[in-house]
Design brief:
Blueprint: E1 2-6, H1 13-21, E2 38-47, H2 49-52, E3 65-66, E4 69-78, H3 93-99, E5 105-111, H4 130-149, H5 153-161, H6 167-175, H7 182-192, H8 206-218, E6 221-226, H9 235-238, E7 244-247, H10 250-261, E8 265-266, E9 275-276, H11 282-299, H12 304-315, E10 318-324, E11 342-345, H13 350-357, H14 359-363, E12 365-370, E13 375-377, E14 388-393
Parallel strand pairs: 1-4, 1-5, 5-6, 6-7, 10-14
Antiparallel strand pairs: 2-4, 3-4, 8-9, 10-11, 12-13, 12-14
Helix pairs in contact: 1-10, 4-8, 6-7, 7-8
Length: 395
């Protein structure tokens, strides 16, 4: 799965991307530092079943295990900054919108300090209302979607009225390249009250209304209220927006991850504190103490790991399951214990998991085994977070 890091220029997107992926990226105090999308791997945490199952250890393949915590991979894309008018081609708008086609959710990085204007240019802290940024980004994406939906709408209306096409199929065909499903299109039409109406009966604003619901359903947003440690941060104002908001301090997170790599601190992403363990200069020590006072004492963490996990577990409502080949040993065919951890949508069934593992396994699915409870489960059994499952297929 993929999360898109989005926002206007110069708000700390690339810093946050560098922190969660530890990939080298360019960041600077001017707009459009990022032109080509940066792609990397971040991780979300979940408890490893080997602890609950009383096993000595596990043998991770795709998701490392550290002290009983599995780190499940999530692809992250840092795209070019967006400015007002992007859907009309301003700035790097067309490229931005193309780069977020395949993200299941968007992490909107906002300058909570209000220290950058609408175009991402530096201004005095507190002089720009970050709520405006929240509104404009959703509006840009929605107008971009609306333009796609209303292409050749009169011709589509004639086909629907002639009975040769369904409006749901027509709209889905236009957005399927962005990974949007027909079910999501149907839900958007229902939420707007346009289900059952032919396009010729729609009002002038109908494409935007449908796009707004489709964006909400298919590209949900979580707000990373970045630079939250700056005294003027407008966190109270951001609390009023109709999105999930997480205070974040990307620079602090990046500094701690780098210090941890160098053996200077004991810190794991998402920790509520850190311990200085290595030799460092007085300046480095003072900098870390400022991070402790201005970030951890105020917010409990840098918020960076929290915003990723909020996007995955809450906004997208994903769960983690552990497929195995031998339910008695919780292992694959080669004896590796709990090798894989997979993120799947809540509500995924045992048969649905089989298809996610491989289409051939899904097509020959017979039944599944719940390794924790030692029982057989049916094809339509909905899986729960942390389940260890063996798929039985006719091969």
């Amino acid at each position: 799965m993929e999360l898109g890091l989005v926002g206007k220029p110069n708000v700390g997107k690339s810093t946050l991307f560098g922190a969660v992926t530890m990939a080298p990226v360019e960041s600077a105090n001017y707009p459009f530092t990022t032109i080509e999308a940066n792609r990397g791997m971040a991780y979300v945490r979940t408890e490893c079943p080997h602890v609950q199952l009383g096993l000595d250890s596990c043998d991770p393949n795709n998701a490392p295990c550290r002290d009983g915590t599995r780190w499940v991979p999530v692809e992250v894309t840092d795209v070019a900054g967006l400015v007002p008018g992007a859907h009309e081609g301003k700035g790097l708008g067309n490229k931005f919108l193309d780069d977020v086609r395949h993200a299941q959710a968007l992490v909107h990085v906002v300058d909570a300090a209000g220290a950058t204007n609408a175009e991402g240019e530096p201004v005095d802290a507190g002089t720009h209302d970050p709520r405006e940024d929240v509104a404009f980004l959703a509006d840009e994406i929605e107008h971009w979607l609306a333009a796609i939906l209303e292409r050749d709408l009169s011709s589509a209306a004639r086909r629907v009225e002639a009975g040769s096409d369904d409006v749901e199929d027509i709209l889905h065909d236009r957005v399927s390249g962005m990974g949007m499903t027909k079910a999501q299109v149907v839900e958007a039409l229902r939420e707007t009250g346009l289900d059952g109406a032919v396009p010729s009966e729609w009002g002038e604003d109908a494409p935007v209304e449908i796009a707004r619901e489709l964006r909400r359903i298919a590209r949900p947003i979580v707000i990373a209220a970045n630079k939250a440690d700056i005294a003027e941060a407008e966190l109270d104002a951001l609390a009023e927006v109709d999105e999930t908001v997480v205070p974040t301090c990307a620079e602090a997170e990046l500094a701690l991850r780098r210090a941890s790599e160098q053996g200077l601190v004991d810190y794991q992403p998402g920790d509520e504190g850190f311990e200085i363990t290595g030799e460092m200069s007085d300046g480095q020590r003072r900098g870390l103490e400022r991070v402790r006072e201005q970030v951890f004492d105020r917010f409990g963490s840098t918020g960076v790991q929290t915003v990723l996990e909020t996007g995955v577990y809450e906004v997208l409502d994903r769960i983690v399951v552990f497929p195995v080949d031998d339910e008695s040993k919780y292992a694959d065919g080669e004896g590796n214990v709990l090798p894989d951890a997979l993120l799947v949508p809540r509500g995924t069934t045992a048969e649905g998991l089989a298809y996610q593992i491989h289409s051939d396994i899904g097509e020959t699915f017979l039944q599944a085994k719940d390794a924790r409870e030692g029982r057989t489960i049916a094809a339509d059994h909905e899986l729960e977070h942390g389940d260890v499952i063996r798929i039985v297929a006719d091969q």
